[in-house]
What we know:
Layout: H1 10-20, H2 24-31, H3 35-47, E1 54-58, H4 67-71, E2 75-80, H5 83-92, E3 99-100, E4 113-119, H6 128-137, E5 139-150, H7 156-177, H8 181-193, H9 197-206, E6 210-217, E7 222-228
Parallel strand pairs: 1-2, 1-4, 2-3, 4-5
Antiparallel strand pairs: 5-7, 6-7
Amino acid sequence: MTRASLDKQPHEVAAMFDKVAARYDLTNDVLSLGQTRLWRRAVARAVDARPGERVLDLAAGTGTSSVPFALSGAYTVPCDFSLGMLREGKRREPWMPFTAGDATRLPFADDVFDAVTISFGLRNVHDTDAALREMLRVTKPGGRVVICEFSHPVWAPLRTAYTEYLMQALPPLATAVSSNPDAYVYLAESIRAWPDQPALARRLQDAGWTRVAWRNLTGGIVALHRGFAA
């Protein structure tokens, strides 16, 4: 799969991530020019996981995003539908309860988690609205969701430069460092097709989340959205 649209076939996306699992985190660090570490720290602060809480980390991949929640004392479940990613994560962090699951049909009971989070994964779910509803279903009343996703830079010159980077500079960089550079062509195109910050906030509200808000990171290249279960 080398071309992107928002009509994603789950088995194709899963296969794509299976192929990049071994070098996924390294590749992301290179292609984001080191920004992924800053974004992960911002997510950890927004989730604010506490001892004794239950946190579901969707699209967790190799579990890199899950570790900070677990180290805070929260029981953390890394969940992904790429078995290749989960195997790599289990190899690195054998103590974590990696779980295979589809974000649109989560294998968990209602009202289980204090917090649900997904970083750079909602864009790859074939039915975004179903996933937002499923996240709400498994979240306890008063619990929270934190979504970290690529978005739309708010400053026009940055938006132009960023689009140029995505479509011109990222593919050759991916070819140099990734085990499956075609996957990053797909990712670049899916970023361009993704809704902007207000549009995603409306979709959260339509799914039933309350007190929805967002804040921009790196000028809006990435946005953090948060909401609460009623």
